[in-house]
Design brief:
With 331 residues, the protein is an alpha/beta fold. It has two domains: 156 residues, Quinone Oxidoreductase, Chain A, domain 1 (Alpha-Beta Complex), CATH 3.90.180.10; 143 residues, 3-Layer(aba) Sandwich (Rossmann fold). Helices cover 28% and strands 24% of the residues. It contains ten helices and 15 strands. The strands form three sheets. Strands 3, 4, 5, 6, 7, 14 and 15 form a seven-stranded mixed β-sheet that branches. A six-stranded parallel β-sheet has the order 10-9-8-11-12-13, sandwiched between helices. Helix 10 links the parallel strand 14 and strand 15. The longest helix has 16 residues.
Length: 331
């Protein structure tokens, strides 16, 4: 079968590799329909240890963490409910040396990397979704167990921002989403998101009042850089900044030590792979089951910008969209 694989110098190339025929115990075979190119796919190709330990590529070095398709065979120990079902996949949820990851015609992954999709949805519309939805779920689990009552999301119009807004609303956790444009604010408002702030001049005053009122002391930061520098003075006492992404590029984040001490701020990395939700299999299975019941929420669908075939991988990796829509590889 055809697959997009990583070369020793961290480039991508299309290769012919053996088609997996028999699933290993605990694994499923999936005929892939589509795979979204998420920000992490580009980041980890350049910097394999960006989230700590590098992820094992498995046989043949097939790339790709997110996708969707249909299960065509299940291994021993896999719940029968997965048989023949269309699924969204986030390969990194469960690491296996036998995995064949998703930018190929047929993937081979642990079933605990898969979320069963309802029959009435199109699998392709969820080809980049599970990474964002699971990130939001695991993050909310972590901050509530740490005692936080509300959250500020810096990349509010991102796919993970949408997922956080929806899941926080379901759990009655106040969420403040920060966006760059009035168009993004209006789009989120149409989706029923209540607290959206455009990061134009003077927005910090509103953020300061609203975050204190809502008890939003957890910051999910997917931007870093100048935006985080700007909002630090507006954060409530005892806030924690959780670093997740770096859309702000190489711009540094800076904070006065006196402000750090006055507000008793703390900073830490958030990683799916290190969360209890993902590390403990019983919690992971429970999370996947919970998300199955809500995944058809429109805020969880993948925003597809342009579809590419496998031999167009360089064009697909270079694709950028102003509204966060993704390049999608289709079979």
């Amino acid at each position: 079968m055809k697959a997009i694989c990583v070369t020793p110098d961290r480039e991508l190339e299309v290769r012919d590799i053996p088609t997996p025929i028999e699933p290993a115990p605990g694994h499923v075979l999936i005929d892939m329909d589509a795979s979204a190119i998420n920000h992490g796919d580009k980041t980890f190709l350049r910097m394999p240890t960006a989230a700590g330990n590098a992820l094992a590529l498995g046989p043949h070095g097939v790339w790709g963490a997110s996708g969707a398709g249909r299960v065509v065979a299940v291994g021993a120990g896999v719940p029968l409910a997965y048989t023949g079902k269309q699924v969204a996949v986030y390969r990194s949820l469960d690491r296996s040396p036998e995995s064949v990851g998703l930018w190929c015609e047929r993937a081979h992954v642990p079933y605990t990397t898969c979320l069963i999709l309802p029959d009435h949805v199109r699998a392709r519309d969820y080809c980049g979704s599970l990474v964002n939805v699971m990130t939001a779920y695991a993050f909310l689990e972590e901050i509530t167990s740490a005692g936080h009552k509300g959250v500020i999301v810096t990349a509010g119009n991102s796919a993970t921002g949408h997922a956080l807004a929806s899941l926080a609303r379901r759990r009655n956790i106040p969420a403040i989403l920060l966006v760059r444009t009035t168009a993004a604010r209006d789009a989120l408002a149409r989706l029923g998101v209540e607290h959206v702030i455009v990061t134009t001049e003077g927005f910090n005053d509103r953020l300061s009042v609203l975050s204190a009122e809502l008890g939003a002391t957890a910051v999910f930061d997917g931007v870093g850089g100048d935006l985080l520098t700007s909002i630090a003075p507006a954060l409530p006492m005892n806030s924690t900044i959780y670093f997740y992404g770096f859309l702000g590029g190489t711009a540094p984040f800076s904070i006065q030590s006196v402000l750090f001490m006055m507000k008793n701020l703390s900073m830490k990395r958030f990683s799916n792979f290190e969360s209890r939700t993902v590390k403990e299999q019983a919690r992971l299975v429970a999370a996947l089951k919970t998300l199955e019941g809500v995944i058809d929420d429109s805020m969880f669908t993948t925003r597809i910008g342009k579809e590419f075939h496998r031999d167009q991988i360089r064009l697909a990796m270079a694709y950028e969209s102003a509204d966060g829509a993704k390049a999608v590889l289709v079979t």
